[in-house]
Amino acid sequence: MSFGDREDELWEAMKPSFKPRLVSDPNIKYAKHLVNQTGPFATRGALTSLGRTDVRATLARVVRRAPEVLVKVTGRKKGAKHLAAHLDYIGRHGDIPLETRDGEQLATKEDAQRIADEWSDSLYWRQGTSVSAVAMVFSMPAGTDPETVKQAVRETAERMIGDNHDYLMALHTDTPRPHVHLTVQAEGLNRKRFDPRREDLFRFREAFAEALRSRGVEAEATPRYSRGQGRAGTSMALTQLRSRIRSGASRQPTETDLRQAREAMQIALGNAEQPAFVSKTRARWQDTRRRYEAAADRLDRSADHEDRKLAGDVRTFLQERANIETVPDRMLRDAEARVIAARQPARTDPSPEPGVPRGTPPPPARRR
Questions:
Q1: Which CATH architecture has domain 66-222?
Q2: How is the chain split into domains, by residue range?
Q3: 257-297: per-residue pLDDT in tens?
Q4: pTM of the predicted model over 0.90
């Protein structure tokens, strides 16, 4: 079925649109490519399938909670020594083989050091320390077949990076989530640098999700707001620090959490207002809800039983997400509870988790 004139409107609710920063962008060529759909943003070859080909299927995966792929840049390695240490880490000091772009396996520390030297030697002419490689991680939820994840990452790398940059891969299965570390040589054969931006990372996510689906694994790549989830607003490092606090490994709240807790307390006391992005997030979700509801109405009028079934799934999805919650919302809820407790001395000060320092935000509720 087709959604007709509303197809573009629904697609925009599920996939992000990127606004190029033409003014003050240090890489003006990159911004122009984004505007003109040329260079890295030109539609080419196999990537044409990543376009707006099946809005209905994407909607079905969103409302039926298909696993979301994760793709992140975890760091940029400067110089041979820094890169060699990273390769030693992802290779677990020789316990996990590193796979090259051609499928060759490197199992020794000497092989990794050789690669680090090769990728860094060509940069000697640059002033200062230059990035030798960009480290990325591709991850899927627990229960996904690790080998399938690795093969999907390899296909993604072949499609998105091609032959211009060398790269190494390492599959890790020592955590519940199978993940692959992909380390890409920064300097390409044509002297172009590999420097993925936000737009590029989303394209990597789409390619990764499509590669998984072609192998029978349901996966999707959508922004948080399209799934009714609040803005994360935290870096990987901050997330890990909070995890250490909750596990008892640390008792020192982060500076970010303390600042957010102070701001939330001022809001709870009526001395301040929520950040502007909170109201914008809610407004965006309400707009997304409106588009989903309109899609459900059109699906209900279809003669196809599967379309009407999908309409019911969309409405169930929306009922479970009446509101959207951000990190400041959770902080404010905790602060309001503390204010109420302080005004009632006979009651014990409620702590969401005994032993967790004040200022650490409560974890987000996980929807199933």
A1: 2-Layer Sandwich (3.30)
A2: 66-222, 236-342
A3: 777 777 778 777 778 777 777 788 888 888 999 999 999 99
A4: no
